[in-house]
UniProtKB/TrEMBL annotation:
SMART domains: HTH_GNTR. This is Aminotransferase class I/II-fold pyridoxal phosphate-dependent enzyme. Residues 88-154 are annotated as: Disordered. Pfam families: Aminotran_1_2, GntR. One of its GO terms (molecular function) is DNA binding. In the C-terminal section; belongs to the class-I pyridoxal-phosphate-dependent aminotransferase family. Gene3D superfamilies: Type I PLP-dependent aspartate aminotransferase-like (Major domain), Winged helix-like DNA-binding domain superfamily/Winged helix DNA-binding domain. It comes from the Bacteria. PANTHER family: HTH-TYPE TRANSCRIPTIONAL REGULATORY PROTEIN GABR. It comes from Candidatus Pullilachnospira gallistercoris. Residues 12-80 form the HTH gntR-type domain. Residues 96-106 have a biased composition (Basic and acidic residues).
Length: 256
C-alpha cells in the first residue's frame, strides 16, 4: 500500500504534509494517472492517522484537480498532462547589461559614483561636459525591447494564449453543444445557470459542510454587479466595510 513517513513534516499539520507529498508524487509521475488510491479508512489505519486527516488531504487534492472521485469506487489519480504546472522558484538576479563599450551596469554605476565624488570635491567641475551623471546610469531592471517574455503576467484583463488549454476547452464546448442542443440558446435564470448553482451547492456541502440550496445561490457577471445586488437587498442606510488598500471600484459602488 502507498506509504509516507512524517519525520520531516516539521510544524506542518499531518494532512498538509500528506497532501504535499502526494501532490509531489503526482507531479513527478510516481503516481500515474488512473492509479486507484487507498480508501480513507484503510489508508488512515496504514499510516496510523485519523480518517479525518486522510479526508482533508484527499479533499484538497480533489479541489485542485490532482485526483478524481468516482462514486462507490473511490479516488483515482487524475490526468494532469493538460494542466499548467508552475516551475520551481529560482532566486531573481538583476541582469548585467553592457553598453557598446562593453561596460556592465555595475561598472558604470561605480564609475558614476566616483565621478560624483569628484564633483563634490571640486564644486561640480569634475563633470566637464556639464552632463547629469545620473542620466548616464542604466536601470538594471528595465525591460529591453526584444527580450523574452516575463515569467508571470499579472494583467487581469486578458488570458495567456500560451498556457490556455485550447484543446480541452474545444472538447468541452463540443460536448456541451451535443448534450444541450438548442436548450443552450434559451434565456437562462437571472440567478445564473441552474446546473452551475447546483454544482456549487454540492461542492459547498461536501467540502465546507454548508447545506445550501441552488435557489439560495446567485451568480453574477462580475464583482461590481454582485455588490450592487447586495446593496439593493440590504439597503444604503447601512455601514459597509471594505479593504483598504483594496479594489477601488467597489468603494465607488458604495459611494454612489
Amino acid at each position: 500500500m502507498l506509504t509516507y513517513t512524517f519525520e520531516n513534516r516539521g510544524k506542518k499539520s499531518y494532512y498538509q504534509y500528506l497532501y504535499e507529498q502526494m501532490k509531489e508524487d503526482i507531479l513527478a509521475g510516481k503516481l500515474a494517472a488512473g492509479t486507484k488510491l487507498p480508501s480513507k479508512r484503510s489508508f488512515a489505519k496504514h499510516l496510523n492517522l485519523s480518517v479525518m486527516t486522510i479526508e482533508n488531504a484527499y479533499g484538497q487534492l480533489l479541489v485542485e484537480g490532482y485526483i478524481t472521485s468516482v462514486e462507490k469506487k473511490g479516488y483515482y489519480v487524475a490526468d494532469i498532462t493538460g494542466q499548467v504546472q508552475i516551475p520551481p522558484k529560482e532566486p531573481y538576479q538583476i541582469p548585467e547589461k553592457t553598453d557598446a563599450k562593453g561596460e556592465s551596469g555595475a561598472e558604470k554605476t561605480s564609475a558614476a559614483g566616483a565621478g560624483n565624488a569628484d564633483d563634490r570635491s571640486t564644486g561640480g567641475k569634475g563633470n566637464a561636459a556639464g552632463d547629469d551623471v545620473r542620466g548616464q546610469q542604466t536601470d538594471p531592471v528595465e525591460k529591453e525591447k526584444g527580450s523574452e517574455e516575463p515569467f508571470a503576467d499579472f494583467a487581469s484583463n486578458q488570458v495567456s494564449s500560451r498556457h490556455f488549454p485550447l484543446s480541452t476547452w474545444s472538447k468541452l464546448m463540443r460536448r456541451v453543444l451535443a448534450d444541450q442542443g438548442t436548450e443552450i440558446l434559451k434565456t437562462g435564470s437571472h440567478q445564473g445557470l441552474y446546473e452551475l448553482r447546483e454544482a456549487i451547492a454540492r461542492h459547498l456541502y461536501r467540502f465546507r459542510g454548508m447545506a445550501v440550496e441552488p435557489e439560495q445561490i446567485v451568480i453574477g457577471a462580475g464583482t461590481e454587479y454582485l455588490y450592487q445586488l447586495l446593496i439593493q437587498l440590504l439597503g444604503r442606510n447601512r455601514i459597509y466595510g471594505i479593504e483598504n488598500p483594496g479594489y477601488q471600484k467597489l468603494a465607488q459602488v458604495y459611494d454612489r
